[in-house]
Amino acid sequence: MAIKLKYVLFALLVMLQLDLSAAFVKVGTGRMVITPELPFYLTGYAARDSMATTKVHDLWAKAIVIEENPSSRIVIVTTDVLGLTPAVSEAAAERLKKKYGIARSQIMFNSSHTHSGPMIWPALSVIGDYDAETIKRFTSYTVSLTDKLVAAVDMAMQSLEPMQLSHGTGNAGFALNRRYKPGPDAATGKERSNRSDHDVPVLLARDAKGVVKAVVFGYACHNTTMTGEHNSVNGDYAGFAQIEVEKKYPDATALFVLGCAGDQNPMPRGTLEYTEQHGKELAAAVEKVVDGKMENIGAPLRSAFVRTELPYQPVTVETFQKELQEGTKYEKRRAKLIMEARDKGWDLSNHNYPVQAMRIGNKLTILSLSGEVVVDYSLNAKKQYPGEHLFVAGYCNQVVCYIPTERIIEEGGYEPVSSQMYYGMPGPFEKSVEVKVNAAISTVMQKVGLHKK
To answer: DSSP secondary structure string, 62-116?
Structure first.
């Protein structure tokens, strides 16, 4: 009897050791409404010239804190806005570091990039000619947004309780590459690029009773189902998807993380009905994963954060002087910003670019890239780390311009060239941008324990 008991205890010990990475960790969630007081100018479409006066549904800042111990955490903050500025995300991160000891590598901010959300000043200031009173309102909103990001994390920290994490991947098909293949058909737009990432990664948290308490999910597609002629506050398809997931799991907080969607548009688009349709399709993909077989994960928690410099192509003073005299209104506004910056002696040769990785239980890695990252970065990362479970996110920490690949820079077009004007950047990036971003990706992946195959 004693021998049998010994073998039973040994077997249990082995099982516990094998499943250590799937043990319970502490999880908490928080949320704050970030809908602006109407009327308010929305951002994302330069053609809009009036303030929004109505809303379809509220916008949210949501947070999830995953804690192994007070020194080992992962914090994800999602926002239903076009993009956070470095000033907003870094200010919130610094306050949370002082308050809770959360290291910069441990907290990731993501923007859904809804084009039906408020202006986050001074991002995309070139798209409008705003008076002093309007800029004052923009600034007031931006300050309050920073406060609410911190408040959402406060709520999450205060609600920590033991939970079981699990992950899985689904699929949604409404994302379509908006660029056309180079060659004879490019000018007529007959043949689109076929590069898309239809994965729907899901990170789930259940409490000790098995109740779903948090659902973090992603998709690589622009939140532009609502086009420029629409002028009402809403979270686009991501907003509707979160609403639908929370209907299905009423005790849960649903957090949407946008993937590498720089060159991806939802199709069809242009109506509120299509927006809701895409949201329901994405929610259904999430629910299929949650209700299916998922893999449990837990400790250890690891994270890494680095910055790299992305060089711009050389530009001349004469270029901007010409734009000031002969350019469009957008070119004139951009040229004014650049000339003023040059006059002050500011360095306009490089863009400071953050890259981040978070790894949960040696099984799931969240790769966080900043800016409007084109889908190739996600597809390439998954090729470079085959067999690994990657949750690749774009639009993280700051959204100040597009991040193209060498191929897209060579092809030209909106993402690598003309979009830089609307973002107030001096010009396109050098072709080396892809090499530099990939080197930063390799660095953070190595720091969390992953190496290229």
So the answer is: EEEEEEEETTEEEEEEEESSS---HHHHHHHHHHHHHHH---GGGEEEEE---TT
Q: Edge-to-edge strands of the sheet including 389-393?
A: 301-311, 350-360, 364-369, 389-393
pLDDT digits 0-9 by tens, 137-177: 999 999 999 999 999 999 999 999 999 999 999 999 999 99
pTM across the whole model: 0.94
Residue 187 burial (CB < 10 Å; 0-12/13-18/19+)? exposed
Q: How far apart are CA 85 and CA 93, in angstroms?
A: 12
* Integer angstrom CA distances of residue 155 from 77, 246, 392: 12, 18, 26
Mean of the pLDDT values across residues 53-65?
98
Given a cut of 90, whether residue 13 has pLDDT beyond it is no
- pLDDT beyond 80 at 7: no
User: What's the one-letter identity of residue 387?
Assistant: G
Separation in Å, CA 436 to CA 225, 307, 430 = 32, 10, 10
User: Which of 330, 377, 337 has its CA nearest to residue 128?
Assistant: 330
pLDDT digits (tens, 9 = 90+) for 330-352: 999 999 999 999 999 999 999 99
How is residue 37 annotated by DSSP? Answer: P
Share above pLDDT 70 across residues of the chain, in percent, rounded to a whole number:
94
What is the number of alpha carbons within 13 Å of residue 409 lying toward its C-beta?
19
Give every CB contact of residue 413 below 8 A, 6+ residues apart in sequence.
179
340, burial (CB in 10 Å: exposed 0-12, middle 13-18, buried 19+):
exposed
pLDDT in tens, 368-411: 999 999 999 999 999 999 989 999 999 999 999 999 999 999 99
Distance, CA of 248 to CA of 87 (rounded, Å): 36
Give the pLDDT score at 187.
58
Please report, as a single letter, which amino acid is at residue 138.
F
Query: Is the distance from CB of 102 to CB of 281 less than 8 angstroms?
Result: no
Between CA 200 and CA 221 the distance in angstroms is 11
Rounded to an integer, the average pLDDT of 353-368 is: 97
Task: Write the DSSP symbol of residue 187.
Answer: T
Phi (first) and psi of residue 245, to 5 degrees: -65, -40
Contact 167, 205 (CB under 8 A): no
- CA 287/CA 328 separation, integer angstroms: 47
| DSSP H helices in 202-235 | none
